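Action item from last week, closing it out:
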Amino acid sequence: MILHTELRNVVGHWTAPRYEVLLYQTTSPRRNSWFPLEGCQFELYLYNRPDHLGTQATALLYTFYLLDHLTGESLALIHVAQDREAQLWSPPMAPFGGIQCAGHTPPQALAYLLECVAEWAQAQQLKGITIKTAPAAYQPAQHEVLHQSYIAAGYRPLYEHNNHHINVSEQPFVELLAAAERRRLRKCQRAGLVARPWYNPEPELAYHFLEKSRQQQGYPLTLSYRKLRDLLDTFPSEVLVFGVFDGETIAAMTVAIRVSQGVLYNFLPADNLLYRTYSPTVLLNEMLYSYCQSEDIEVLDLGTSLDHHGQPKPGLARFKERLGGTCSPKITYCKEF
């Protein structure tokens, strides 16, 4: 295999009998050429792609990239960024980061990758690292291997939240629902509410709806208008808007993220309080499920059930379960150096 140490932006290099780890540094993450993808046998999640990293990073971004000498394969990577307190974070700014790897990556290879990260961080006199990982439901077997690798490398779970998802099948959505949610779905349909994709949404109108919904519930919208507009413009195939409409009036809407070919994430759901008696979010979730069926998406991620302070919202969790959602852990790890 040809080593990549002559490539631009490589600032670190570790070798072992079988594996090689390269460290890339960049200030221009949107340029797709700043780390090599040849030999990569796994699909990058949207949040790990260079174009999305460009919407996250505000300073230097570092990528540790694991290669297999024997096969020439790219096995794994992890992106990290440093804050002013000499802490590393993965991701810099996204729902999750951490190691992403090929499904057959052996634990010893992951251990070597984490060893290289720790060696570099200590040489930089950094204080620690926090890693927010994907929900286990995305890749359950791989999640367990990664979990054991983090623990063996001295990481401890800082937070473990329940994350709800629906495994998409040919089964109709209505059959997944609890009786009360079936009644609400029929009530929406009898009232003439219509759920559909909102193609080419007007960013200002969508943002105003999201912001007003959050304000009515007593907490702020953390996403700025500029960021929403940037995401819609940059990722028209991955950042999708769906709505429930009563004529021209929006009863509910969400911004959903196509995280990968197999995962759709219900990222920013919001509703119009005037339509709460109809529970239009049930109809909205039926639309998302139907969209997943039509696009061969296997997992509809309903997200965690937390308030703006990061505290559990049991009522929201129960609602997701009545929609047919099941739980898997979403873990944030940390380690001090």
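Closing note: Residues 107-123 form the longest helix (17 residues).
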